[in-house]
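WARN no homologs supplied; continuing
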Amino acid sequence: MSGNPVLNDNRFTTIAYSVPAEGVMTVEGALKKASILFGALLVGMLVMFGAYAALDASTPGAGMALAGVAATVGGIGAFILVIGLVFVRPKGTPTFAMTAYVGLEILFLSGFTYIMELAYPGIAIQAGLVTAGITGTMTMLYTSRAIRVGPRFNMVMAALVGTVMFVYVGQMLLYFIGGVTIPFIHGSGLIGIGFSVVIVTIASFTLLSDFYFIETGAANQYPKHMEWWAAFGLVMSVVWIYIEVLRLISKLRD
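OK structure emitted
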Protein backbone atom coordinates (compact mmCIF):
# COMPACT_ATOMS: atom_id res chain seq x y z
CA MET A 1 0.00 0.00 0.00
CA SER A 2 1.11 3.58 -0.71
CA GLY A 3 -0.03 6.76 0.99
CA ASN A 4 -0.60 8.20 -2.48
CA PRO A 5 -4.07 6.93 -3.53
CA VAL A 6 -3.06 6.68 -7.18
CA LEU A 7 -0.16 4.39 -6.20
CA ASN A 8 -2.09 2.15 -3.83
CA ASP A 9 -0.63 -1.34 -4.29
CA ASN A 10 -4.11 -2.86 -4.12
CA ARG A 11 -4.76 -1.32 -7.53
CA PHE A 12 -2.07 -3.46 -9.10
CA THR A 13 -2.72 -6.89 -7.59
CA THR A 14 -3.95 -8.21 -10.95
CA ILE A 15 -0.52 -7.70 -12.49
CA ALA A 16 1.88 -10.62 -12.60
CA TYR A 17 5.34 -9.55 -11.46
CA SER A 18 7.34 -12.48 -12.89
CA VAL A 19 9.84 -10.60 -15.10
CA PRO A 20 7.52 -9.46 -17.91
CA ALA A 21 8.68 -9.30 -21.52
CA GLU A 22 8.64 -5.48 -21.44
CA GLY A 23 11.35 -5.50 -18.77
CA VAL A 24 11.21 -4.57 -15.12
CA MET A 25 10.87 -1.35 -13.21
CA THR A 26 14.01 0.36 -11.90
CA VAL A 27 14.53 3.31 -9.57
CA GLU A 28 16.55 5.12 -12.24
CA GLY A 29 13.85 4.55 -14.85
CA ALA A 30 11.11 5.90 -12.59
CA LEU A 31 13.12 9.01 -11.72
CA LYS A 32 13.99 9.60 -15.37
CA LYS A 33 10.32 9.48 -16.35
CA ALA A 34 9.45 11.79 -13.46
CA SER A 35 12.02 14.24 -14.82
CA ILE A 36 10.32 14.13 -18.22
CA LEU A 37 6.93 14.93 -16.69
CA PHE A 38 8.40 17.67 -14.50
CA GLY A 39 10.19 19.19 -17.48
CA ALA A 40 7.05 19.25 -19.62
CA LEU A 41 5.07 20.77 -16.75
CA LEU A 42 7.64 23.48 -16.02
CA VAL A 43 8.09 24.49 -19.67
CA GLY A 44 4.34 24.60 -20.21
CA MET A 45 3.87 26.74 -17.09
CA LEU A 46 6.53 29.23 -18.16
CA VAL A 47 5.07 29.53 -21.67
CA MET A 48 1.54 30.11 -20.37
CA PHE A 49 2.75 32.51 -17.67
CA GLY A 50 4.54 34.54 -20.34
CA ALA A 51 1.41 34.51 -22.50
CA TYR A 52 -0.70 35.93 -19.66
CA ALA A 53 1.85 38.67 -19.01
CA ALA A 54 2.10 39.56 -22.72
CA LEU A 55 -1.68 39.70 -23.03
CA ASP A 56 -1.95 41.94 -19.97
CA ALA A 57 0.71 44.22 -21.43
CA SER A 58 -1.25 44.70 -24.66
CA THR A 59 -4.75 44.59 -23.14
CA PRO A 60 -4.77 45.34 -19.40
CA GLY A 61 -6.84 42.82 -17.48
CA ALA A 62 -7.14 40.32 -20.34
CA GLY A 63 -4.24 38.19 -19.14
CA MET A 64 -5.63 38.12 -15.62
CA ALA A 65 -9.04 37.04 -16.93
CA LEU A 66 -7.54 34.29 -19.09
CA ALA A 67 -5.43 33.09 -16.16
CA GLY A 68 -8.59 32.83 -14.07
CA VAL A 69 -10.34 30.73 -16.71
CA ALA A 70 -7.28 28.50 -17.14
CA ALA A 71 -6.94 27.98 -13.39
CA THR A 72 -10.61 27.07 -13.03
CA VAL A 73 -10.74 24.67 -15.98
CA GLY A 74 -7.37 23.11 -15.21
CA GLY A 75 -8.01 22.78 -11.48
CA ILE A 76 -11.42 21.15 -11.78
CA GLY A 77 -10.29 18.92 -14.65
CA ALA A 78 -7.14 17.72 -12.88
CA PHE A 79 -9.05 17.05 -9.65
CA ILE A 80 -11.71 15.00 -11.45
CA LEU A 81 -9.03 13.08 -13.37
CA VAL A 82 -7.11 12.17 -10.20
CA ILE A 83 -10.31 11.09 -8.42
CA GLY A 84 -11.14 8.93 -11.44
CA LEU A 85 -7.71 7.28 -11.41
CA VAL A 86 -8.16 6.38 -7.74
CA PHE A 87 -11.09 4.15 -8.71
CA VAL A 88 -10.35 3.18 -12.32
CA ARG A 89 -6.97 1.80 -13.36
CA PRO A 90 -6.13 1.87 -17.08
CA LYS A 91 -4.19 -1.20 -18.21
CA GLY A 92 -0.57 -0.64 -19.10
CA THR A 93 0.94 2.83 -19.39
CA PRO A 94 -1.71 5.50 -18.71
CA THR A 95 -0.45 7.64 -21.61
CA PHE A 96 -3.68 9.55 -22.14
CA ALA A 97 -4.25 10.11 -18.42
CA MET A 98 -0.70 11.40 -17.89
CA THR A 99 -0.83 13.68 -20.93
CA ALA A 100 -4.21 15.04 -19.85
CA TYR A 101 -3.01 15.53 -16.27
CA VAL A 102 0.11 17.45 -17.30
CA GLY A 103 -1.94 19.59 -19.70
CA LEU A 104 -4.57 20.37 -17.07
CA GLU A 105 -1.95 21.11 -14.42
CA ILE A 106 -0.18 23.47 -16.83
CA LEU A 107 -3.44 25.40 -17.16
CA PHE A 108 -4.14 25.39 -13.43
CA LEU A 109 -0.65 26.05 -12.11
CA SER A 110 0.18 28.76 -14.65
CA GLY A 111 -3.13 30.55 -14.08
CA PHE A 112 -3.12 30.17 -10.29
CA THR A 113 0.54 31.19 -10.02
CA TYR A 114 0.02 34.23 -12.26
CA ILE A 115 -2.94 35.43 -10.19
CA MET A 116 -1.04 34.88 -6.93
CA GLU A 117 2.05 36.62 -8.33
CA LEU A 118 0.02 39.73 -9.17
CA ALA A 119 -1.43 39.78 -5.66
CA TYR A 120 1.82 38.87 -3.88
CA PRO A 121 4.86 39.84 -5.99
CA GLY A 122 7.68 37.30 -5.69
CA ILE A 123 5.48 34.53 -4.28
CA ALA A 124 6.07 32.22 -7.26
CA ILE A 125 9.83 32.08 -6.67
CA GLN A 126 9.32 31.77 -2.92
CA ALA A 127 6.92 28.85 -3.32
CA GLY A 128 9.19 27.19 -5.88
CA LEU A 129 12.20 27.39 -3.58
CA VAL A 130 10.26 26.12 -0.57
CA THR A 131 8.87 23.23 -2.62
CA ALA A 132 12.36 22.33 -3.84
CA GLY A 133 13.63 22.52 -0.26
CA ILE A 134 10.86 20.27 1.03
CA THR A 135 11.44 17.75 -1.77
CA GLY A 136 15.18 17.67 -1.07
CA THR A 137 14.64 17.33 2.68
CA MET A 138 12.16 14.48 2.32
CA THR A 139 14.55 12.73 -0.09
CA MET A 140 17.36 12.93 2.47
CA LEU A 141 15.08 11.74 5.26
CA TYR A 142 14.07 8.72 3.19
CA THR A 143 17.52 7.76 1.92
CA SER A 144 19.04 8.13 5.40
CA ARG A 145 16.20 6.01 6.86
CA ALA A 146 15.64 8.74 9.45
CA ILE A 147 11.93 8.02 9.06
CA ARG A 148 10.85 4.40 8.88
CA VAL A 149 8.45 3.87 5.96
CA GLY A 150 6.42 0.67 5.65
CA PRO A 151 2.86 -0.64 5.35
CA ARG A 152 1.75 0.93 8.64
CA PHE A 153 3.17 4.34 7.69
CA ASN A 154 1.49 4.16 4.29
CA MET A 155 -1.81 3.14 5.86
CA VAL A 156 -1.73 6.23 8.09
CA MET A 157 -0.80 8.43 5.14
CA ALA A 158 -3.61 6.98 3.03
CA ALA A 159 -6.08 7.81 5.81
CA LEU A 160 -4.75 11.37 6.15
CA VAL A 161 -4.80 12.02 2.40
CA GLY A 162 -8.30 10.55 2.20
CA THR A 163 -9.45 12.89 4.96
CA VAL A 164 -8.00 15.92 3.16
CA MET A 165 -9.67 14.85 -0.09
CA PHE A 166 -12.98 14.47 1.75
CA VAL A 167 -12.68 18.01 3.17
CA TYR A 168 -11.76 19.48 -0.24
CA VAL A 169 -14.56 17.66 -2.07
CA GLY A 170 -17.02 18.71 0.63
CA GLN A 171 -15.86 22.31 0.36
CA MET A 172 -16.21 22.22 -3.42
CA LEU A 173 -19.75 20.84 -3.27
CA LEU A 174 -20.82 23.33 -0.60
CA TYR A 175 -19.44 26.20 -2.64
CA PHE A 176 -21.07 25.20 -5.93
CA ILE A 177 -24.41 24.31 -4.33
CA GLY A 178 -24.86 27.24 -1.99
CA GLY A 179 -21.78 29.43 -2.14
CA VAL A 180 -20.81 28.25 1.35
CA THR A 181 -17.20 27.98 2.50
CA ILE A 182 -15.87 26.09 5.51
CA PRO A 183 -15.14 28.73 8.19
CA PHE A 184 -11.59 29.73 9.16
CA ILE A 185 -9.55 27.27 7.05
CA HIS A 186 -9.25 29.65 4.10
CA GLY A 187 -8.64 32.71 6.26
CA SER A 188 -5.34 34.30 7.20
CA GLY A 189 -5.84 33.92 10.94
CA LEU A 190 -4.06 31.45 13.18
CA ILE A 191 -6.54 28.66 12.39
CA GLY A 192 -6.20 29.19 8.65
CA ILE A 193 -2.40 29.29 8.80
CA GLY A 194 -2.33 26.26 11.09
CA PHE A 195 -4.58 24.36 8.69
CA SER A 196 -2.25 25.13 5.79
CA VAL A 197 0.79 24.03 7.80
CA VAL A 198 -0.90 20.70 8.51
CA ILE A 199 -1.81 20.20 4.84
CA VAL A 200 1.71 21.09 3.67
CA THR A 201 3.09 18.56 6.18
CA ILE A 202 0.76 15.81 4.97
CA ALA A 203 1.56 16.59 1.33
CA SER A 204 5.29 16.51 2.10
CA PHE A 205 5.11 13.11 3.77
CA THR A 206 3.34 11.61 0.74
CA LEU A 207 6.73 11.89 -0.97
CA LEU A 208 8.04 9.23 1.43
CA SER A 209 5.25 6.90 0.34
CA ASP A 210 6.10 7.63 -3.30
CA PHE A 211 9.78 6.81 -2.73
CA TYR A 212 8.78 3.61 -0.95
CA PHE A 213 6.57 2.60 -3.88
CA ILE A 214 9.41 3.20 -6.34
CA GLU A 215 11.94 1.27 -4.25
CA THR A 216 9.52 -1.59 -3.57
CA GLY A 217 8.45 -1.75 -7.21
CA ALA A 218 12.05 -2.06 -8.37
CA ALA A 219 12.83 -4.71 -5.73
CA ASN A 220 9.74 -6.75 -6.65
CA GLN A 221 10.39 -6.44 -10.40
CA TYR A 222 7.18 -4.64 -11.32
CA PRO A 223 6.60 -4.35 -15.10
CA LYS A 224 8.49 -1.56 -16.87
CA HIS A 225 5.37 0.53 -17.51
CA MET A 226 4.94 0.91 -13.75
CA GLU A 227 7.78 3.45 -13.89
CA TRP A 228 5.28 5.84 -15.48
CA TRP A 229 2.77 5.24 -12.69
CA ALA A 230 5.49 5.91 -10.11
CA ALA A 231 6.57 9.08 -11.93
CA PHE A 232 2.96 10.20 -12.17
CA GLY A 233 2.42 9.76 -8.42
CA LEU A 234 5.66 11.58 -7.60
CA VAL A 235 4.77 14.56 -9.80
CA MET A 236 1.28 14.68 -8.31
CA SER A 237 2.73 14.91 -4.79
CA VAL A 238 5.18 17.69 -5.67
CA VAL A 239 2.43 19.65 -7.43
CA TRP A 240 0.25 19.33 -4.33
CA ILE A 241 3.09 20.58 -2.13
CA TYR A 242 3.63 23.60 -4.41
CA ILE A 243 -0.07 24.53 -4.39
CA GLU A 244 -0.33 24.29 -0.62
CA VAL A 245 2.90 26.24 -0.11
CA LEU A 246 1.54 29.02 -2.33
CA ARG A 247 -1.58 29.17 -0.18
CA LEU A 248 0.41 29.15 3.05
CA ILE A 249 2.74 31.94 1.95
CA SER A 250 -0.19 34.06 0.78
CA LYS A 251 -1.79 33.70 4.23
CA LEU A 252 1.45 34.62 5.96
CA ARG A 253 1.81 37.73 3.78
CA ASP A 254 -1.74 38.99 4.37
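The chain has one domain: 23-253.
OK
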